[in-house]
Amino acid sequence: MEKLPSSAEKKHQRVLSVFGTRPEIIKFAPVLDELEQHPELKTVNVCTSQHTDLAAPFLNEFQIRVDHDLNAMRPNQSLNALLGRMLVALDDILEAEQPAFVLVQGDTASALAGAMAAFHRKIPVGHIEAGLRSGDPMSPFPEEMNRTLISQIATAHFAATERNRDTLLNEGVKAGSIYLTGNPVVDSVSKMTETDLCSSAVKELLEVTEGTKRIVMTAHRRENFDSNLAGYFEVVREFLQKNPSISLIFPVHPNPSVKALAHDYFGEMDSVHLAAPLPYPDFVRLLQHAWLIVSDSGGIQEEAPSLGKPLLIMRENTERPEAVECGAAKLIGEEPSSLQKHMEEVLSPGSWAGSVSELQNPFGDGESRKKIVEAICSAIG
Questions:
Q1: Residues 118, 87 contacting (CB under 8 angstroms)
Q2: Among the options 24, 33, 34, 143, which is catalytic?
Q3: pLDDT, tens digit, for every residue of 15-31?
Q4: Which one, of 276, 215, 280, lies nearest residue 251 by Cα?
Q5: Dihedral of CA 334/345/232/143: which sign?
Q6: Choosing from 33, 129, 303, 322, which is the catalytic residue?
Q7: Is 143 a catalytic residue?
Q8: Residue 79, SS3?
Q9: What are phi and psi of 199, to 5 degrees?
Q10: Catalytic residue of the set 222, 237, 273, 289
Q11: What pTM does this model have?
């Protein structure tokens, strides 16, 4: 008969969390904080550093302890090389730490590596933000396939919405392994809005754009680099030239392709303010003061309705249709001319954008961290 663990061994079950990108850190932060409140659990935090310069400030901002740093990024490495490097490093850590449970979030290479490494060692896996699907395995690439594969591995699925839960059920996931939790990004946004503090750089941006209608834009999706991004930027530039009462604040992603295009199209425009990537409290503060958000980001599709701000999504499809269905966002598609039409629509009197602040947030109530940790405790037993 297999020996049962002693009460002392039961008392400190290890939960090992794997993260490495800025969005993962934002969504992991409230969950990690909640895990620390449970004396029967011991947390082990593994940062892959899939994002290097972008991730470090967010780890500091959320005061996240890193027990193991994989330092996985190398210049110009392929996705296969990145995934392989992380798998090898994670295997050694799992051997040393012997966790009872591995926690991953979302759809990154870090999340897929964490799930695969745990599966190979027969360790249960929990997946935060489970059940998102765009329906196109190549868009977003490679995220759509990453999250689909993780769902085949995970033993506990933390779904943000009823739609996500239904998606998992339709794919054959057992109902008892799915937990409807909401999305912890709502918890993080709520925490950031509890104070009006922001950096001097953001205060200056808000002061210099005072009295204008502010557009906050972000762009970083890989599938937009080759063709659509230049077209989108051209449309935004022409819109700003025709409407001098509107300003653009653009925190520019450090990807060289994005930086080069941003400076080519907006570098000499007085109404445009290009900024470096911002600490999360600063970014949320900007979104709070936005008239309109334009982005190809997945996370902003959750943050915009959490803040009651209208969003135009520069993508062909979305794995978060709830943002569109609740009336907080519009999906632009691949034609840049569609972006022009939608921006002019927002500018017109009586636009749909004016009622976004009154909508109910489809992504949760700000208590996701508690529901996720309760589910983890249940899954561990």
A1: no
A2: 143
A3: 999 999 989 999 999 99
A4: 276
A5: negative
A6: 129
A7: yes
A8: helix
A9: -75, 165
A10: 222
A11: 0.87
Active site residue 120: no
Distance, in Å, from the CA atom of 266 to the CA atom of 234, rounded to the nearest integer, reads 9
Is 107 a residue of the active site? Answer: yes
| Catalytic choice (33, 107, 144, 322) | 107
Amino acid at 57: P
Q: What is the pLDDT of residues 288-325, one digit of tens each?
A: 999 999 999 888 999 999 999 999 999 888 999 999 99
Catalogue the E-assigned strands of 254-328.
272-275, 292-295, 311-313
Distances from the Cα of 249 to the Cαs of 70, 208, 225, 270, 366, in angstroms? 34, 11, 20, 11, 27
Of 14, 38, 163, 220, the active-site residue reads 220
Please answer whether residues 161 and 363 qualify as being in contact, where contact means their C-beta atoms are separated by less than 8 angstroms: yes
Measured CA angle at 56 (ends 156, 128), to 5 deg: 10
264 is an active site residue:
no
253, 320, 342, 369: the catalytic one is 253
For 123, the token pair is: 């360790």
d(CA 323, CA 372): 22
Find all residues with CB under 8 Å of 210, minimum gap 6, and list them. none
